[in-house]
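Practice record 12: protein with adenosine monophosphate.
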Amino acid sequence: MRLWRTPAQVERLEGTIGFVPTMGALHEGHLSLMRKAKSECDTCVISIFVNPTQFGPHEDFQKYPRPIEEDLRLAESVGVDAVFQPDVSDMYDESGVAVLPGKVAELWEGEFRPGHFQGVATIVTKLLHIIRPDISYFGSKDFQQCAVVAAVCEGLNIAGRLSFVDTIREADGLALSSRNRYLSPHERKVAPEIYTSLLKVRDAICHGNEVNGELHAAKYHLSELGIRVQYLAYVDAKTLQPVDRCIPVGRLIFAGYLGTTRLIDNCEVNL
Ligand code: AMP
C-alpha cells in the first residue's frame, strides 16, 4: 500500500480508480465504501484528512480522533492501494480560495453548522482534482453531504462518477460514526432510539398518517429520552426541501445532541 503525504507525491495508478475520502478513525462504514470501490474499480485510493475548514470554531477539530497507525492497518486489510494523508499546510495556503456549495447546502446542516459545507465543498473539490478518480464513494449516512457533493460536481463540471453507499449500522440500528466513541454507556444505550424513531415515522408516513403530527411525536419522544433534537424533518430527497405530505422519493433526516455528542442519521422513505 502506498502512502502519499503531499499532493506532489500522488501518482497516477494503472486502470480505473475508486476514491474514498475520509477523515480517518476508520470503522466498518468507511471500510464498506473501500470494499465497494475495490470491487468496482482496478484500484482503491483513500484520503485521510481531518479537514479544518469544515469544523466550526466550537466544534471538535482538535479532539477529533486520529488513530493513524490503526487506520493504515485497516485500509491495508481491505486491499486499499494507496492512502493520501496530507498535512493541513499541504492542502491550504493563505489565499482564502474556497468553493461555494450552492443552494442545497443552505438548509439543515447548513443552518446549524454555518460554513461546514463550504469546507466540505472546498476539500472535496481539491481532493477530486488531486486524485482524479473514475468513481468517488460517499456514505448516505451524510445524506445532505451527498447532495452537496453532487451539486458541486455538476455545477463545476468535475469529471468522474459519484456513488452513494448505504449506511452501515450496529446490530441495534445505531449508524456507525467516528463520534460514537464519545458516547457514555448510558448515551450509547439511548442512541439507537434515533433510528428506531426514523423507521417508525417512515412507516407511519407510508401508511398515510399526517406527516407533521408524526414528526412532532417523534421529536417529543426523543427529547423525553434526553436527545436534544436540532431537526427531524421529512424532505424531498433531491432538493432537501421539507414536505408535509407523502411524496414518491422522500427522506427523513435527523440531527441532534446526546450529551455533548452531535449525531446525524437519516432514512429513505420510498413509496
Ligand atoms: P468521515 O470520515 O466521517 O468524513 O466519513 C467518510 C465517508 O464515510 C463519508 O462519505 C461518510 O458518509 C462515510 N460514512 C461514515 N459513516 C458511515 C456509515 N456508518 N456507513 C456508511 N458510510 C459511512
